[in-house]
UniProtKB/TrEMBL annotation:
Protein name: 1,2-phenylacetyl-CoA epoxidase subunit A
Pfam families: PaaA_PaaC (PF05138)
InterPro entries: Aromatic_CoA_ox/epox (IPR052703), Ferritin-like (IPR012347), Ferritin-like_SF (IPR009078), PaaA (IPR011881), PaaA_PaaC (IPR007814)
Gene3D superfamilies (UniProt xref): 1.20.1260.10
Positions of transmembrane segments: none
Keywords tagged on the record: Oxidoreductase
Domain of life: Bacteria
EC number: 1.14.13.149
A GO biological-process term: phenylacetate catabolic process
Organism of provenance: Pseudomonas donghuensis
Gene Ontology CC entries for this record: cytosol
Length: 329
């Protein structure tokens, strides 16, 4: 596996001969499936790759609250409102676990968050699309959390201990999110009016392709995959996970009685997988560059939230100081 990655990787990997004794021992530990912990020696590039991935992941959870927060005041029933609020609070919790996991690598939370606010840090492309109707809340739960789970289940076995352990808890919660989204859609499709059914189909039409883009560029265009797979930060490739998501989602789509906007989608008995059409990669890269439908709005909202909360943080620090001084006196 390692030798094969050395040959095919988009970024060239070091061969075992080129590694220092310390690097070889590190790679051996990874190959032996022993987790890397915060205090263990690690190559700087391993540390930086994790800080990059975990911070992007944390930002995604935090920005991911915004498209759903948009619908809290318009939830149709008390039950739906409670479900939605619980889900959004979970996403905040995921962001906080992940920032903590990132800090174990020596990264500074405030500086990483500052990169999000000045537009330098990436977060999942999906959250740069608008949520236009109530049906989007079901489709986000079903497809977006569904895609996130397929990716994150594998990350439970990632080589860095604190990230792997955060993922185990996060996956349990994401699974509830996916189910509440799907149950909402089933209710609309089975008991709803024609207008509600059309709303579900329209939400699927808008979010299907962006959900497939969540898995990242195809393997041959993914610069980080080869090294991340060799370090077992990633355990399966972007394309493998995308295919798994499609294979498990289409039967659920059929049960709903809906369709996806892809005329090329077809079961391929020989491969044992669904074939699907070409992803619009130009659109994906435009969103990554900051030109998606909601990029500016999302970052501006986060920036505003930090500014609005400044007095709360100042008050908390003043209170903590006062308490500390009292104890010290
Ligand atoms: N969006 O070489 P690769 C959620 C970037 S959580 C934006 O393949 P890598 C929960 C990538 O960063 C969703 N950027 O990169 C929720 C890299 O840029 P860089 C988030 C993307 O890291 C649900 C460049 O493209 N999940 O949804 C995307 O090996 C509902 C080249 O790509 C995670 O973050 C994208 N879709 O693989 C919350 C999971 N794809 O940094 C609220 C952890 C790629 O070199 C509501 N992350 N890029 O400048 C991962 O598994 C990986 O980082 C991948 C990308 C698979 C996302």
């Amino acid at each position: 596996m390692y030798a094969q990655l050395v040959e095919t990787g988009v970024k060239r990997l070091k061969s075992l001969d080129e590694m220092s004794a310390q690097e070889r021992a590190f790679q051996q530990r990874i190959d032996d499936e022993i987790k890397i912990e915060a205090k263990n020696w690690m190559p700087d590039a391993y540390r930086q790759t994790l800080i990059r991935q975990i911070s992007q992941h944390a930002h995604s959870e935090i920005v991911g609250m915004l498209p759903e927060g948009n619908w809290v005041t318009r939830a149709p029933t008390l039950k739906r409102k409670l479900q939605l609020m619980a889900k959004i609070q979970d996403e905040a919790g995921h962001g906080l676990y992940l920032y903590s996991a990132m800090e174990t690598l020596g990264a500074d939370r405030d500086s990483e968050i500052a990169k999000l606010h000045n537009g330098k840090a990436k977060y999942s492309s999906i959250f740069n699309y608008p949520t236009l109707s109530w049906a989007d809340m079901g489709v986000v739960g079903w497809l977006v959390d569904g895609a996130a789970i397929v990716n994150q289940v594998v990350l439970q076995r990632t080589s860095y201990g604190p990230y792997s352990r955060a993922m185990i808890r996060i996956c349990k919660e994401e699974s509830f999110h996916q189910r509440q989204g799907y149950e909402m859609l089933l209710t609309m499709m089975r008991h709803g009016t024609q207008v509600q059914k059309d709303m579900v189909q329209d939400a699927i039409n808008r979010l299907w392709w962006p959900a497939l883009m969540m898995f990242g560029p195809s393997d041959e265009h993914s610069p980080n995959s080869a090294q991340s797979m060799a370090w077992k930060i990633k355990r399966q490739s972007n394309d493998e996970l995308r295919q798994r998501f499609i294979d498990q989602t289409i039967p659920q789509l059929e049960l709903l009685g809906c369709s996806v906007p892809d005329p090329a989608l077809k079961w391929n008995a020989e491969r044992g997988h669904y074939d699907f059409g070409e992803i619009q990669w130009d659109e994906f890269y435009e969103v990554l560059k900051g030109n998606g439908p909601c990029n500016q709005e999302r970052v501006a909202t986060r920036r505003q939230a930090i500014e609005d909360g400044a007095w709360v943080r100042a008050a908390a620090v003043a209170h903590a100081r006062k308490k500390h001084n009292k104890i010290a006196a």
